[in-house]
Design goal:
Helix 4 crosses helix 7. The chain is 57% helix and 0% strand. The chain has eight helices and no strands. About 4% of the residues have low confidence. The protein is mainly α.
């Protein structure tokens, strides 16, 4: 499946893993995917930041909701079942758009519409930023269906905040 991911989608996965490490979490959850998506300069990041959902705000809400771990996990950090499902559903989202690649916008759409977490921390973080899941999804849909919007390119379009 990852062979269908654009560079930006792959970067989301890598950044989510980095965020999990920085928070000393021993898993990669949907909340880590959300943090990574806030740094996307393409459709996903634009839809989030347009509603005030930024990396710092999301990290703050996640730290409040579930806290930070005690020690970092060396080696591989597994994805939760819910975050794996979000990535799988991103493929379905892409196919519904009649494209054969998965972009960061498809990951965000899947996160917004199909988060199966027992406690939807990502959704709570969006709400904590003063936005609604529905409003972000509507903005994302508008951006992704804009006929003048450029196709996702091969280059990762991210800015990593220090």
């Amino acid at each position: 499946m990852f062979e269908r991911f654009t560079d930006t989608a792959r970067r989301v996965v890598v950044l989510a893993q980095e965020e999990a490490r920085m928070l000393n979490h021993n898993y990669v959850g949907t909340e880590h995917l959300l943090i990574a998506l806030t740094e996307d300069l393409a459709h996903a990041g634009q839809a989030l930041t347009a509603h005030g959902v930024t990396r710092d705000k999301v990290r703050g809400h996640i730290a409040e909701l579930i806290g930070e771990g005690i020690t970092s996990s060396p080696g591989h950090i597994p994805f939760t079942p819910a975050s794996r499902q979000v990535l799988l559903n991103a493929l379905r989202s892409a196919l519904a758009c009649s494209v054969n690649y998965i972009d960061s916008g498809h990951i965000l759409h899947s996160l917004l519409t199909g988060d199966t977490s027992l406690v939807p921390v990502a959704h709570q973080a969006i709400t904590g930023c003063g936005a609604t899941v529905e409003a972000v999804n509507e903005s994302l849909t508008d951006l992704m269906t804009d006929p003048n919007a450029p196709e996702p390119g091969p280059q990762a379009r991210f800015v990593r905040a220090a």
